[in-house]
Design brief:
Blueprint (H helix, E strand, L loop, with lengths): L1 H9 L3 H7 L6 H13 L5 E7 L4 H9 L5 E5 L2 H7 L5 E5 L9 H11 L8 E7 L8 E8 L6
Parallel strand pairs: 1-2, 1-4, 2-3
Antiparallel strand pairs: 4-5
């Protein structure tokens, strides 16, 4: 199965075919996810991070098949378990975040600690305000992993 998947994913038309047709579930969230995937095409992007309550934001990112790994950050164990089978998604259960200013720090810390991005790389963050509201993905933020000091 791995051999077949590897061959298919190397086809130059594969990304186009993957995005060709799928139903629009939530036009705003789908547009935000598509914008994140396009922004991630930059060589300096290390990973995408999605704060998600139900797992839907991370699943939408997985469906886009970005070249970078996706970090799903959720407070819900049930969502983390569902995401375990999603393509390219690494999931972490986190404590609830109440301050939007903490989004970047939490996302970058987890991404670096898990080895999903190198110090200095960009981390694209998707989240929704108000925090913890399912279906509220409405923020795309760019953060940078700090360079390590020797």
């Amino acid at each position: 199965m791995d051999r077949i998947l590897t061959r298919v994913e190397q086809d130059p038309r594969w990304p186009e075919l993957m995005r060709a047709e799928y139903p629009i579930e939530d036009a705003d969230a789908d547009a935000l996810v598509a914008a994140a995937r396009r922004a991630a095409d930059s060589a300096s992007t290390g990973c995408l991070a999605a704060f998600t309550t139900t797992g839907q934001t991370a699943l939408r990112l997985s469906r886009e098949r970005p070249l970078q790994p996706t970090l799903a950050l959720t407070t819900e164990l049930s969502a983390a378990r569902r995401l375990a089978l999603a393509w390219g998604v690494e999931t972490q259960v986190i404590a609830p975040i109440t301050d939007a200013e903490d989004l970047a720090k939490v996302a970058v810390d987890h991404a670096v600690n898990l080895g999903l991005c190198q110090p200095g790389a960009r981390v694209l963050i998707l989240a929704g305000l108000p925090m913890g509201s399912p279906g509220a993905a409405n923020i795309l933020r760019i953060a940078h992993a700090p360079l390590r000091r020797g």
